[in-house]
Design brief:
With about 1000 residues, this protein is α+β, with helices and mostly antiparallel strands. It contains ten helices and 69 strands. About 20% of the residues lie in helices and about 35% in strands.
Length: about 1000
């Protein structure tokens, strides 16, 4: 055999090529990109749109939420804020202006400041009503500002086309050259949860590890306008407008090129990325295509859902996307704003298609659904993503019997075989009104007008203990006793040995009964007119709520393991806390339920005409609902509670035709009596379901329930200081942790000022003084008239006494004198007549004295001191009982009537000293003080005893009476053998004439008395 020389075997020559091909074929799956199936719409999310024609701005480039929950929008036409109800354009503070209206980037600082990046106008900081802008002079290079980011130390970084900048509190500083980062085309920055700093610059990805000073070039190229985002698992993802979206790094660092390529999503060409708490990836498509949502199974993308303008998106061109603090997703487009909210209730898309769908719960806790064709569907959680064929095949393999009905017959499916069970005669073919399947082998049926049937042990029997009356609803209580509700509103409970009846006499008045539920000690009965509850063995109590009609038309009720009560009714699905319901029943207060309606995903309302309950709870925690639009489910293992307490923003106050922001310390103009105060809760999930209560200090005694109204009205407000407080609750009844409050003041009008009140008081006082003066004048005139009348009467009496008594007495004395001088008069008689005449002359002299006093008065306006001296001279005679008269102070003008009373008191004291005291000397002292007049009369006589105090011409009693009329104080000091002193103290106002004022009221008159 001849050997081959000079060339190898052909197989050996092709071996390297074959090995290379084999290696490529082996590695090909590792480099295969991911292309998940794409579907249209987002059925698990409720979409709400605010369009340009409805008040929303256009060209929304970025969205940010502040610490209070308010949304801020950077648009091509300026800065806007959104509170869930209305959009407001934010004007620049007075005295400043925004460098440009074309805003592209927003960021919330840790100090509540809002940072604004412009298209070509630098950066601004807006905080506490102040605006500060930064341009080239402050270190900001020319160019677009596409992104801000804060590091762990709170330092703010800005990606600018002209370079990366860091804010030092005053200026924007560039990085030193040693950082190794290019100073051009910086388009994105991101600080991840592990402290790494990612920068997209010069069309490359740069990374600086925590604690490092220099950036590292990853060697990965990117396209223009690429962006970054971090997932809940800590992975950093890249959105590239050429290669699509792919993961970039995980906790350990950069992913290998093969893994990045294997997990790349080339069809997800995104402008922005946003991960949600459930691990799903949301993206706004670039440049068109709306919104996309990608779900993962591990690292494999299993589904992509697209939502675009045909589905209701405001525009197909969308850029910003964020998740707010309540879990809502917000997407801005060039024609408006969009909100995506996860639905709590989900519609079964592959279930029965018949108009009437029914639910049944098997004895093993599984729930099955079926239609009029009696084909059951297994509704276990693990099968929900499967097809209708899969659900039906699983139902045919059910381990326990499945009860069904077709309106005139019962049906039971065992091991995939369905057997019809017709009603017995005479009820065969009659419609079913109510059904209950207590276990796998028995059923209760109400049919016709009087048919009450029990199916057990494969045969029908009638319950003789129950009346032949059709019932409308069936249920079992917690102990397995049968509950029967009737169309007349009655309820019966049947046990093995007795039947209990409940009606209006026990408080049960809900109309025709549609559903019943017994949970622990709580018995709920629903009817067409509402819901009633019974705790323990008490009476039924109507359940009241603050939502009208929410408890009507309930046809299915269940209780879950967490104590929640679920009621399927004509308004949707209602959830109540059993503990709160018990407390509300005991206190008589309304309960606040949570309503799940169309916005929450309810496809319709509860079926109202079926014989079986429309709510069933499976052992896997899914609550199934039969509605007039199909079957739906809710996962009771999730909370479905928005636990974020809403903050409240107090807006403008409207008074008259003006309005302005209600801020602390606001002063409203005088005369303001009517106010309108606007407020809103910054809970953006269901703003139409937010509830409010407010109060105004000094007006409201307690909190005023405002329902869902966002305005408070007040009228008839007085001037003064006020404090307005408002609280809010979100759709789940979670109230604000603290009320929002503002203090303000209403300025008083002139008539409401203290000066006006003082002026009124002064005017009233002046009127009183004028009235007193007028009345005093009237009384003085009356007194003068009476005094003149008294003087006239005294003169008349004096004339009469002089003309009659005195003249007659004088004639009688003369006659007696003549008799005494007669020679015929005996001497003894003459002596007696002389004595009698002397006595008569003395009496006549005293009578003349009194008559003279009656005629002209003893004082008659003379000086008080000289008048008293004349009294002493008249009664003492010359040279006997000397008088020492002392006067202190200038003598002021005296009131005549008061001076006369003083004179009479002094005269009586002098006469008593002369006549009764046998005094050798008398002292009279007059003191004219500014506050008081004093009169002292002293003698050195024998003194007087108390029992003689009332004797004399007038006596001391008369002196006291005169002093009392004067309002004066009279005192007497006396001792036997040592003399007597009389002291009189008269207030100056009762004796002196008042000095005329330097000024007087125009209506006052000069005193000429």
């Amino acid at each position: 055999m001849r050997a081959m020389r000079g060339r190898p075997f052909p197989f050996l020559r092709r071996l390297p090529t074959l090995l290379t091909c084999l290696l490529l074929l082996t590695a090909l799956p590792a480099f295969a990109v991911q292309r998940p199936p794409v579907s249209g719409g987002l059925p698990d999310y409720e979409h709400t749109a605010w369009r340009v024609g409805q008040g929303a701005p256009g060209d929304i480039w970025d969205i940010s939420q502040d610490h209070d929950g308010l949304l801020w929008l950077a648009t091509g036409s300026g800065l806007y804020r959104f509170d869930g109800r209305r959009f407001e354009r934010q004007a620049a503070p007075v005295g400043s202006q925004f460098p440009s209206t074309n805003m592209v980037t927003l960021a919330q600082g840790r100090d509540d400041a809002l940072w604004i990046g412009y298209f070509q106008a630098g950066i601004s900081r807006f905080a506490q009503g102040r605006l500060h802008s930064y341009g080239r002079e402050q270190g900001v290079p020319v160019g677009v500002v596409p992104r801000f980011s804060q590091d762990r130390e709170g330092r703010l970084w800005a990606a600018i086309n002209g370079g990366l900048r860091r804010f030092d509190g005053q200026r924007w500083q560039p990085l030193p050259a040693a950082a190794g980062l290019p100073e051009r085309r910086v388009q994105w920055v991101l600080h991840d949860s592990r402290g790494r700093f990612w920068v997209l610059a010069d069309l490359k990805i740069w990374m600086r590890a925590a604690g490092q000073a220099a950036f590292e070039d990853t060697g990965i190229a990117v396209s223009q306008m690429a962006t970054l985002a971090e997932s809940p698992q800590g992975e950093v993802w890249l959105a590239d407008r050429v290669r699509g979206t792919s993961p970039l790094a995980n906790a350990q660092g950069l992913l290998a090129a093969g893994e990045r390529e294997a997990r790349r999503l080339p069809e997800l060409v995104a402008a922005r990325l946003q991960f949600t708490a459930d691990g799903a990836l949301w993206a706004t498509m670039s440049p068109h295509g709306g919104v996309a949502r990608i779900t993962f199974d591990g690292t494999r993308a299993v589904r992509m859902e697209r939502f675009d303008s045909p589905h209701g998106l405001t525009a197909t061109s969308a850029v910003p996307i964020i998740v707010d603090r309540e879990g809502n997703l917000w997407v801005g487009t060039n024609l408006g704003l969009n909100r995506f909210r996860a639905r709590s209730v989900h519609t079964l898309a592959v279930g029965p298609s018949d108009p009437y769908r029914s639910l049944v719960r098997a004895s093993d806790g599984r729930v099955y659904g079926y239609g009029e064709d009696l084909k059951p569907y297994d509704l276990r959680r693990t099968l929900l993503d499967g097809s209708a064929t899969l659900l039906q095949a699983s139902a045919r393999q059910a381990p326990t019997p499945i009860w069904q009905f077709d309106w005139v017959n019962l049906a039971r499916t065992v091991a995939g075989h369905t057997m019809l069970i017709p009603l017995p005669a005479p009820f065969t073919g009659q419609p079913l009104h109510a059904l209950l399947f207590p276990d796998d082998a028995q059923a209760w049926v109400c049919t016709g007008e009087r048919g009450v049937l029990h199916y057990q042990h494969d045969r029908w029997q009638r319950e003789s203990r129950l009346p032949e009356q059709a019932y409308s609803s069936l249920a079992l209580d917690a102990s397995g006793q049968l509950l029967l509700g009737y169309a007349d509103g009655r309820l019966r409970r049947m046990s093995a040995n007795r039947i209990e009846n409940f009606d209006a006499s026990q408080g049960l008045s809900v109309g025709p009964i549609t559903a019943m539920l017994h949970q622990q000690d709580l018995l709920l009965v629903a009817g067409e007119a509402g819901l009633a509850a019974r705790v323990g063995n008490g009476r039924f109590v109507p359940v009241r709520t603050d939502m009208a009609g929410v408890l009507e038309g309930i046809t299915g009720m269940v209780a879950d393991a967490n104590g929640h009560l679920w009621l399927n009714g004509s308004r949707g699905l209602v959830r109540m806390e059993s503990g709160l319901l018990r407390r509300a029943l005991r206190s008589g207060l309304p309960v606040t339920p949570r309503l799940f309606d169309a916005i929450d995903g309810m496809p319709g309302i509860a079926l109202q005409s079926g014989p079986i309950a429309t709510a069933a709870l499976a052992d896997d925690g899914l609550l199934w609902l039969a509605t007039n639009q199909g079957l739906a489910w809710l996962d009771t293992t999730r909370s479905h509670v928005n636990s974020m307490p809403p903050s409240v923003r107090i807006g403008d106050v409207l008074y008259g035709s003006k309005h302005e922001l209600l801020r602390d310390g606001l002063r409203l103009p005088a005369g303001t009596s009517q106010l309108q105060i606007d407020y809103v809760a910054l809970s953006l999930a269901r703003p139409e379901r937010n509830r409010y209560r407010y109060r105004l200090s000094g007006v409201d005694d307690g909190w005023q329930d405002a329902g869902s109204s966002t305005r408070a009205y007040y009228t008839n407000l007085a001037a003064g200081n006020y404090r307005f407080e408002v609280e809010a609750a979100n759709e789940d009844g979670i109230w604000s942790t603290a009320p929002a409050s503002r203090s303000f003041r209403i300025a008083p009008t002139f008539m409401q000022t203290v000066w006006f009140k003082l002026l009124c008081a002064a005017a009233i006082l002046a009127l009183l003084m004028m009235a007193v003066r007028i009345r005093s004048g009237q009384l003085a005139a009356l007194f003068r008239a009476r005094l003149q009348e008294r003087n006239g009467e005294r003169e008349r009496i004096a004339r009469d006494l002089h003309d009659t008594l005195l003249q007659g007495s004088q004639g009688l004395i003369l006659r007696l004198h003549a008799i005494s001088q007669s020679p015929q008069t005996p001497e003894p008689v003459r002596g007696q007549l002389e004595s009698a005449m002397q006595l008569a002359e003395r009496n006549l002299a005293e009578g003349r004295e009194r008559v003279n006093a009656l005629r002209e008065g003893p004082f008659a306006g003379r000086d008080l001191a000289s008048a008293l001296a004349d009294v002493h001279a008249e009664y003492a005679g010359h040279g006997t009982n000397p008088l020492r008269l002392t006067v202190e102070g200038a003598t002021p003008p005296l009131q005549a009537d008061a001076a006369e009373e003083v004179f009479l008191i002094g005269r009586e004291a002098i006469r008593n000293a002369l006549r009764h005291a046998n005094a050798s000397a008398i002292e009279v002292e007059l003191s004219y003080g500014t506050r008081c007049f004093l009169l002292h009369v002293r003698d050195d006589g024998v003194g007087i005893a108390d029992e003689n105090a009332g004797h004399g011409h007038w006596g001391l009693q008369g002196m006291r009476e005169r002093a009392q009329r004067l309002g004066a104080e009279l005192q007497l000091w006396t001792r036997t053998g040592l003399g007597t002193e009389v002291a009189l103290a008269v207030p100056a106002r009762r004796l002196y004439h008042r000095r005329p004022s330097r000024w007087r009221w125009p209506w006052s008159r000069a005193n000429h008395d």
